[in-house]
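ENTRY TYPE: paired fold submission
RECORD: A
CONTENT: sequence, then structure tokens
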Amino acid sequence: MNPVTAYGFMKNPAINDPLLPANASRTIFETLASPFERVTLKRSMRLFDASIGLKPGIAGLPSAEVLVHVITGHESHEALVRVLVGAEYQNFRNLVRKVGSQRGDTVKDLSKQTGLTEDNLVALAHGNKDGALVPDLLKLFEVGLGAPVWAFKVFTNHTLNCPSCGKNFFEDVDTSWKAKPLALGKPEYEFAERFLTAILGAILIAVTVMGKQISTTSLELLGSLVDEKQYPIGNWLKLVCKAYGVKTLTELELRLALRKVTDTNGKPISGRRLADWARGTNLISVDNSYCLLAPLGGNDELKMALLAARAFAFVEEFLVAADARPYAPDAALVRQVIKTRLEELNMKLVHGLKIFQTKMIAKSASALPESVA
């Protein structure tokens, strides 16, 4: 489904949202693409500074471009479009921004290059000289974050009061984050919370809706990507080493050389590059990660694990940048905070799924005729 068709589908039909009061409805887009709230950074981010679009000390709305960066590895949706459209990029850009006069066969050529219909291509044209090149594409990435967050909330939308304090077990966002050893404001920890719940929600969707059998990134083992001693991508590379039957990055370098694995530019992947990726000196691109996985048959487990690791890396960097103290918190401390919160969220989801299942069984039983029940 291309961006225009998908966005049109999400924007129009109303759906029943279990998180809303009875008889209330919203469009799919309204349900899944909640806009970011303003957050304030104390210091600049390192690898995601350009894509998040925030300046230290100034409250602002994080750019949706950061979702493109986390998910695809491209720092902006326009950079992604440039790759997808290829040699026809300038013609595509001129068409969308309505710059100059277009040749009669321009739309036909673009249709062949992109796979979009001519009508859909024309519908993308907005004539804005500035701003997002393809706003609908950015909105789809917002839905890409919102859908798993919504799934997580649906399965944890319960009441389970503590017999001692009376607080709802499932409503712990404020109490949990305020107890963590970081100096974060409510907008900042809620922003980080959204990404962590999205990771769990994405696994939930993959397992329950798409029928994926994913062991490495299951709810129980997802925490293996978060270790206070290691950058998340480093933990992911450990999984890659295991898949190749080696134990170290040095051994992985040799194994890659033997299998003639190269990067997207056709160059060998050196041990130094592997080490830089593992430390977070540079962020491994999604395309290069797929080069690593090609001899393994693509490996859907490791692809999903990579996406989770990239999201963890982003949350780690965001929390370091958002901590309000004069000095940046130690990365190991931030990773421990992420791991602890992930475990708490996982526990909420496990209990939520059990309650949801119990409710469904009870609902099914009540619908049976008395003679059957």
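RECORD: B
CONTENT: sequence, then structure tokens
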Amino acid sequence: MPDYMAPHSTASVPAADGDIGHGSRQQEKTFAAQDGRLRPGGQTAARPIRQPPPAVMQPIVHANTETLSLRQLDELNALPKGTSFRLFRRCEQQLEEGRDFFYLPADEHKALINDLKASGQIYATTVNLVLLTRTGYARMQQITRGAP
């Protein structure tokens, strides 16, 4: 299975409603060289500054399923810390635990949580861990778009 990838070839920008992974594409900025310096606009031929290729995330395998942490989803979609958590909470009742996400309480998964903190795959402030599956991530996108 391929790695999780951002949904657009340019950086994904959240819509005003907190949408994930399908915001409008960032408008490309153009700069023209004048006097050896880069300045906005200009009268010479403009060249677009391209965004880097989409981010690729290394999935966290849990229960033989590839998942991503909420931190990874924030980073994948260029969202501020906590945005994916808030969206998850908003969608949680429409998601199925064990299929769309896994909830790992700290008292039962302390070693895994500490390892993931050390690797930077989850936030250092994480207590109980939520891991989203591919189907859960896709379902969250549908819900935030308003699809049934």
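NOTES ON RECORD B: The radius of gyration is 19 Å. The beta strands are 4-5, 30-34, 37-40, 47-48, 56-57, 60-62, 65-69, 101-104, 129-133.
STATUS: closed
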